[in-house]
Every structure is written in C-alpha cells, then in structure tokens.
Amino acid sequence: MHLGFFSPPYAQAYVDGRRTLREVIEWDLQVARWADEYGLHELFFAEHHTIGHEPSPAPDLMIAAAARETTRLRLGAAAHLLPYHNPMALATRLMYLDHMTGGRYIAGFAPGSFPTDGQFFGVGPGNAKMMDEALDIIDAIWTKREPFRIEGEFWTVDMPAHSTQWNGPHLRPFQSPHPEVMMTGVQPTSPTFVDAARRGFSPMSQQVGIVALRQQWATYEAAALEAGHTPDRANWRVMRDVFVAETDDEARRLFLEGPAGRTWDELVLPTFRAVRDRGGKPYALGELLLDPGMTIDELTIEWMVDNFFLIGSPDTVVEKIIRFNDTLGGVGALLSFTFDFSEDPEPYRRHLELLGREVAPQIASVGPRALVAA
Fold this sequence. Notes:
Layout: E1 2-7, H1 12-15, H2 21-37, E2 42-45, H3 59-69, E3 74-77, E4 80-81, H4 87-100, E5 105-110, H5 115-121, H6 127-143, E6 148-151, E7 156-159, E8 181-185, H7 191-199, E9 202-205, H8 210-226, E10 237-239, E11 242-244, H9 248-257, H10 259-273, E12 275-278, E13 281-284, H11 301-307, E14 310-312, H12 314-328, E15 333-337, H13 346-363, H14 368-373
Parallel strand pairs: 1-2, 1-15, 2-3, 3-5, 4-5, 5-8, 8-9, 9-10, 10-15, 11-14
Antiparallel strand pairs: 6-7, 12-13
C-alpha cells in the first residue's frame, strides 16, 4: 500500500485576504518537497476555476513546478476537467508533461462538478457527453500511430500523416502505452467508475464511508469484468485523511484544533451536509460518510476525528490503516487532503516525516494480494 495526498488546495486565508495566491502555491510546493524527502508516494492537484477557497485552475502547471522540486514523488491531476479543454491541445500538453516529469505523471480526468465553473465555460448538462468524447480523442492521440480523423459532436480531430518536411507529428507519451489514467467517484454506484472500468482506467474513491466504498469497488469490478479487463485492487486509490503526531492525544489535538479541523468544520462538512435533490427525494451527501444507523445530525468533526479519519501516533495509525485495508479487502493507495499549516508549519512537516519514515515502511507489504491470499 502507498500513501499520498490530494491538494484542492484549501485556502481560506487567501479568501480572507491574509495570504496571496503565490503563497498558496508556494505552500503546495513545500508540501511536495517534504513528501518527496520523506519517501511518500504521490501528490495530486485539483482543477477549479471559480472557487476562491480552492484556487487551482491549472494542475498541469502545478505538476510541472513540483516536478522541478522533487525527484521521486509521482505527480497527478485530480482532475483535468475535460469539458473545459480542447482535447487535442490537452492531449499534446500532457504528453509533454509526461516527458517533463520523467514518467512520474498520472493523468486524472473528470467532467467538473461546480456549477459556476460550468457557467464560466458555457457548458451545460452535456458535461458527461463532452467528457466521453474528449476521452476518446485523447486516447486516440496517445495510442494511434497512423493518421486518423474523429468527427465528434463537440470536437473534430484530424491527425495528419508524418511529414518528412516537418518531422512530425512526433509527440508520444513517455510512459508506455500512456500515463496511468485515474477517474474519481463519490456515489456508491458511480457512473464514472463504470466508465473507468470499461476503459481500463484506475478508480479513486472520495472520502465516503465503508458501505459506500464497498459498493464502489463492486461497481468498478463488475464493469471491468464485463468489459474484459481484470480489476486490480492495487490500482484502487481511496481518500481518507490521515494525521500523525508523537502521541494519540497530540495528533487528535493538532488535527481537531488546527487548520485541518477548521477546514473540515467550516468548509467541507457544510458542503457534505448540504441537501441535494436525487430523484425527488431529499439527499445529503454527508450520509455517505455515516456508519449504519447514524443520522446526518450526528455528523460532526469530533465524530469524524474519532471514528472516520486515521489519526494518532505512528503505531496507532499503522493499526488503523491495516484494519481499514482489511475491512475493504485491500486497496492500493491511501490519499489524504493537504491542509494549510503555513502559519505554523512544524506540526505538518513532522506529520509528513512520521508518515513517511515510520508509518509507510510498516504498511508497505500490506495490500490486496496479501489480504486476498489470507
């Protein structure tokens, strides 16, 4: 099992005018340097265009910058929002990025979920259709070696034959046949997971409860088998916040009373509690986090710290991760949100050090193959 991170980034201080956008960027790069130094595995950057508290409109630029600051850390997008890009331009840029990172790049694709981003780009409810068409185009550009033409509903690509005069087209991915592609899902029977499985891409589960996670894997597994692919739990990434300190009490206090707890309490949990309409029936996204028998009113940051997140001393966190992995039947990687500890960075630096040097070695052999064999 690998350990990694996902940076939205959460930047309430930027929204409040206490930090500049460059400072937000520099904190992300500092986290990347520490993660690389302490032997952690991967870091993903988000794409949002109109969301002030998650200001990251260009994950490819963050990956390029972080690649110059690191040597081992794998760097990915979670995700490039395909309806907001010309897929031909994106495909070639990402091949270039694959070379720039020396093959450390992971491609993540999604349709986009914030309505104001869709409004900004003039993209309506056809997001899923646009994403599907863009995926077909990107895959063709990455894998086909002969001239081809695809006329879609939204874009047309006309790949010319190789010209000796221009010595091109010439770009190919650094990784063969192309970078790993990952798609994220939230709902238990996520249609994104079905599409990922059909295409042979990797799944990444957002922070939801055990019941939802089991359903997500079952959805992905069934769709992969139907498409003739062999689903591999080693490729399954699951998001679940982890925080490590010298003792259990210190870890709990630093998470609960620090930037991580404030971010969840003031920003993330209110979003999860928001009521949305699903088929005419009230539905709270936060219900996906709950244990069976709980109500949405019981969803508090204190409950999550004690029952949902993986928080404690190195030994406690190792035990929690192994139990979490065992409960799910095995996952390939565990990803945590990053948080803005820049005003007092030492607790976060130490968290990363303990995670990389004490926790990661103890769980390196824990994974789907060991558990399935057992």
